[in-house]
Amino acid sequence: MAYTFQSRATADLIMLRATAEHILKILDKPLGEPGIVTVEQIPQALVTLNQAVAEDEARRKAVQDEFSDPEEDHSAESAAASAQLGAVSLRQRTVPFMDMLRRSAAENKPVTWKI
Prior knowledge:
This protein has 115 residues and is of the alpha+beta class. The chain has helices at 17-26, 42-66, 75-85, 90-106; strands at residues 2-6, 13-16, 35-37, 111-114.
């Protein structure tokens, strides 16, 4: 299942369910139903997503630092930690959506989604 994000300021953005729901959870939006980020909500949504991205990057750096000691073999633990964090960062996953939010704000258009 996929979510389709729409705005009159941009082309549609189609996102796989897991990624879309992760972003919507960060924004405290309902899951599994259509919704909206109003023009008034967009600035706070961008702040919230930027904070989540910063936290994700800090977690990734901490994991990388923890397992970077060349004197110890952490290959199993490192692989498990990397799998838990995921191969694709939150920044990479949110860039298209954040761009949609910015462009929509510039044109005073809300962002909606449907499943």
